[in-house]
Automatic annotation (TrEMBL):
<dbReference type="InterPro" id="IPR045576">
    <property type="entry name" value="RPC5_C"/>
</dbReference>
<dbReference type="Pfam" id="PF19725">
    <property type="entry name" value="RPC5_C"/>
</dbReference>
<feature type="compositionally biased region" description="Basic residues">
    <location>
        <begin position="490"/>
        <end position="504"/>
    </location>
</feature>
<feature type="region of interest" description="Disordered">
    <location>
        <begin position="454"/>
        <end position="528"/>
    </location>
</feature>
<dbReference type="Pfam" id="PF04801">
    <property type="entry name" value="RPC5"/>
</dbReference>
<dbReference type="GO" id="GO:0005666">
    <property type="term" value="C:RNA polymerase III complex"/>
</dbReference>
<feature type="compositionally biased region" description="Basic residues">
    <location>
        <begin position="458"/>
        <end position="468"/>
    </location>
</feature>
<dbReference type="InterPro" id="IPR006886">
    <property type="entry name" value="RNA_pol_III_Rpc5"/>
</dbReference>
<dbReference type="GO" id="GO:0042797">
    <property type="term" value="P:tRNA transcription by RNA polymerase III"/>
</dbReference>
<protein>
    <recommendedName>
        <fullName>DNA-directed RNA polymerase III subunit RPC5 C-terminal domain-containing protein</fullName>
    </recommendedName>
</protein>
<feature type="domain" description="DNA-directed RNA polymerase III subunit RPC5 C-terminal">
    <location>
        <begin position="524"/>
        <end position="691"/>
    </location>
</feature>
Length: 695
């Protein structure tokens, strides 16, 4: 910049001196009611100030205003014939109190307000007084335009006149009224309805007009209202008491970086660009949540180069646990507090407990069998499979194998971390043993697994082989194969408990024939081993189980489910039993192990009758006695359902009449049919059989 340009800039500053300083005040006395009225169709040289005002009204909430102005009917520019014709069309030949025009001519016009569509939050009305600028914020800007509603009234009157007098006097015929029940509205549908034009019009019509009084600008009341535009120093100037820095920020706000909308990513994909912007602790947490299981060397390769290993170790121990030399994300990180399973709705605390037990089992075993795990943690099959898929992969004839290879390199380099993790696992197992009621075999396994994390799988296999040769425990691989053999040989399913082995106390086995209300011969196949069901106690894997109490609990569960449903298939009762089991507290007797046969026997003991409709279908258990006075009719219905799982109402009525039972009406029979059947056309189908056909 040369000297000439500097002289020009200095001269420009001198040409723009500060002439005068004016104090600025903010008044809020009229801010809630101050409106700016615009007249876009009226020339500015013809204001409405001198035009007589007949009436004014407003809708404060909808911010609407109407003003009635008189029309000069004596003006040379007024067409009297047109004015009389308009009044005749609107009010008719005989005006009354409800007429729009008081005379026989169109003697007034209505100005109706419309929103200007401009955001008025940045507009104020300013006035100067004693070298002070007083500003009042505007509530709104309204444009006043002529209203032509009188034309609509004239058209409506003409349409009514076209209808004959006879038709108008006839009474309307009675018509049936259709009653419809409105469905529950979603949040999205409600938002669209509230933003619709019809809803806005409805809100406008619901608000009533409020009559206003018009005062000329030169009246005393108008002068007193204008005085409210001036601020009072006691109340309205607090906004301007701020520091110069704050005032400058208000004038020139800081620029905020616009947040770019990022594309949606799959749940199992982590953006590396976003990862680089996170702190180190958040990076480790995000990587563990995404990978679930990871080697420490892989974790270091994903972090920025030069990252301190000690810092990473400190952070990774906050969100993960060491299993077979690999880091597995903690259960409480995956399942936060107050969350629930997406499959079964089980709370996060139960999921964390089951996942920690699976991790502890992988701490000592390379392979796991899902059935053994489910019998201890008492979780539905979907949740158990979901947890296993996070840290293992399925191998045919072996079970679930831990997904990562044993990381001996990390164990050798960081012995102190591995020992600290082993101590942590010991404390965690003591908690799991109390809550999950882990058997003594698991406790023995934990006691014999000395320093299992620090030693490699090869060393453990060698030690296990030497122990098996000397009569000790079998090796890990042999143990896994043996577990698979046991699972294949035991054909009975067990729910939420260890495998059960029952030894009968004698050769004399009693058969209990519990009926479903039929002949004794019909229930021979439903006989049950009384010695096994009513035995006071049984020793299972070193744990004493009270079989009598277990039987009573099972019968109670079966009775509750039958009372609410009346009809249950075998698969339905298994599912309901698992849901009941998930609600039971730790150590409940139902978690000791229940077989399919015990579940079926509990249904029979609860008073159900077993129906079979084919070798490829589930057995159906139906409640035959309720005790409400209709058991005789139920017996007739059940007899028909035993022959065929479908009934016609007419056939049911005929059977009831043949049995000599007095029934009030067909509605009573329909109510009884609804307890056991589902209508399908002209037939009533047994509930569980209809579900099997649909599936």
């Amino acid at each position: 910049m040369n000297y000439l340009e500097k002289d020009q800039l200095s001269s420009l500053d001198e040409d723009d001196p500060v002439v005068e300083e004016v104090d600025v005040y903010l008044s809020k006395q009229l801010s809630e009611n101050l409106l700016l009225l615009q007249y876009p169709v009226r020339p500015c040289r013809f204001p409405y100030d001198e035009v007589p005002h007949i009436a004014s009204r407003a809708k404060p909430k909808q911010l609407q205003l109407e003003v009635e102005l008189a029309v000069n009917t004596r003006s040379s520019n007024y067409a009297s014939s047109k004015g009389e014709q308009i009044a005749l069309n609107v009010d008719g030949a005989e005006p009354d109190e409800s007429s729009v025009y008081s005379s026989n001519k169109m003697d007034k016009q209505v100005l109706h307000s419309e929103a200007s569509g401009v955001a008025t939050g940045r507009y104020v009305l300013g006035t100067l007084k004693d070298n002070e600028l007083h500003m009042t914020p505007l509530r709104g800007v309204l444009q006043m335009r002529p209203s032509f509603e009188y034309l609509d009234k004239a058209d409506l009157r003409l349409q009514k006149g076209a209808v004959g007098d006879e038709d108008s006097q006839d009474e309307d015929d009675a018509k049936p009224v259709m009653v419809k029940f409105e469905r529950q509205e979603t949040k999205e549908a409600k938002a669209r309805r509230l933003a619709s034009y019809d809803f806005m019009k409805k809100k406008e019509k619901e608000e009533c007009w409020v009559n206003l009084n018009y005062h000329q600008p030169h009246t005393g009341l108008a002068e007193s209202e204008r005085c409210l535009l001036y601020a009072t120093l006691s109340n309205d100037t607090s906004e301007f008491y701020m520091s110069p820095d704050d005032y400058l920020k208000q004038l020139i706000p800081e620029e905020k970086a616009a947040e770019e909308k990022k594309p949606d990513m799959p749940n199992n994909v982590l953006s590396m660009s976003d990862l680089k912007t996170m702190p180190l602790a958040e990076q480790v947490r995000a990587l563990l949540i995404s990978a679930k299981v990871i080697h420490f060397s892989q974790l270091m390769s994903l972090l920025p180069k030069g990252t301190d290993v000690t810092t990473v170790l400190r952070n990774v121990q906050q969100v993960a646990l060491l299993v077979q030399g690999c880091w597995v994300v903690k259960s409480e990180v995956l399942y936060p507090k107050d969350s629930f399973s997406a499959h079964s709705g089980i709370p996060a605390e139960t999921l964390c407990r089951g996942r920690d037990y699976i991790m502890w089992r992988f701490l000592h075993n390379r392979y796991l069998v899902r059935k053994d795990i489910a019998s201890v943690i008492r979780l539905p099959a979907e949740d158990v499979k979901d947890i296993l898929e996070q840290m293992a992969r399925f191998r045919v004839h072996k079970g679930w194998e831990f997904v990562m290879s044993f990381d001996q390199e990390f164990i050798s380099r960081h012995v102190e971390v591995a020992q600290r993790q082993q101590m942590l696992w010991d404390r965690k197992f003591q908690q799991l043993a109390q809550i999950l009621n882990v058997t003594k075999a698991d406790l023995k396994l934990a006691a014999n697994a000395t320093s299992s994390v620090i030693t490699s799988p090869r060393c453990r296999r060698t030690t296990s082989r030497s122990r098996s040769k000397s009569g000790g425990e079998m090796s890990m691989s042999d143990q896994s194969d043996a577990d698979m053999d046991v699972q294949k040989s035991d054909k009975r399913r067990h729910y939420s408990g260890p495998e059960r082995r029952h030894h009968s106390s004698g050769s004399d086995l009693k058969k209990l024939h519990l009926g479903a209300g039929g002949d004794e011969g019909d229930n021979v196949e439903n006989g049950m081993d009384v010695d096994r069901m009513l035995s006071p106690a049984s020793d299972i894997n070193g744990t004493t189980i009270d079989l009598g109490a277990l039987k009573l609990e099972l019968v109670k569960v079966a009775a509750d489910r039958l009372a609410s449903r009346h009809v249950l298939s075998t698969s339905d009762f298994k599912r309901l039993f698992l849901l009941k089991l998930a609600e039971c507290p730790p150590g409940h007797i139902l978690g000791c192990g229940v077989s399919d046969k015990q579940l079926e026997e509990s249904l029979l003991l609860a008073g159900a009758q077993k129906l079979n409709f084919g070798p490829n279908t589930d057995s159906v258990y139906i409640l035959n006695k309720v005790g409400d006075g209709w058991d005789e009719v139920r017996a007739v219905l059940i007899g028909m359902l035993k022959e065929k799982p479908q009934v016609r109402l007419s056939s049911f009525r005929k059977k009831v009449d043949e049995a000599g039972i007095d029934v009030l009406s067909d509605n009573d029979l329909r109510k009884l049919l609804k307890e056991y059947c589902v209508p399908k056309g002209a037939l009533w189908m047994l509930k569980c059989t209809l579900q099997q056909e649909d599936s």
